[in-house]
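Bench notes, afternoon.
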Amino acid sequence: GVQLDLTLLMQINPISLAVITITILMTFVVTLLLARWLKISAAESCLVASGQAICGSAAIMATSKVWSAEQVKVGLAIAVVNFLGFLGVFIMPWLIAHVTTNHDIASGFLIGNSLQSMGHVVAAGFYVNDAVGHGAVLIKMCRILFLIPTLLLLVFWVNKPKLQSKYHTNKSP
């Protein structure tokens, strides 16, 4: 995300950018709720959520440093996210061919905003056609730009109890 040019965001209209942002937030919320229901730790669910919402394995690796996650949990999260992305490479083009109206811009947005890694996006997008592939890659690159702000929010969230205890001491009157 750091190496991408922020002018890329200028090519995306504000409504699309808002939809990308909402999708990332919804992915985190739904993943955390499902994880709580399945009794999965916050760290593990956050690893999977970041991989699903941002950019697959790279986001999981970056998030693992925030949570100081065990390598086994990181490996499992990477496996889950990549397996879901692998399925998405076949499911998304099928959905576009059979469910949507085959509108290139909408199809590119759908693929770029729903698949996990750039490899999955490229495979699914260019399988449909070149216009969908290029649009999907542009949207995916915008999602990747959200890695830095997402990591900053996670650092704050993970360290919030430490910061509160550091700056708020219990003093009796």
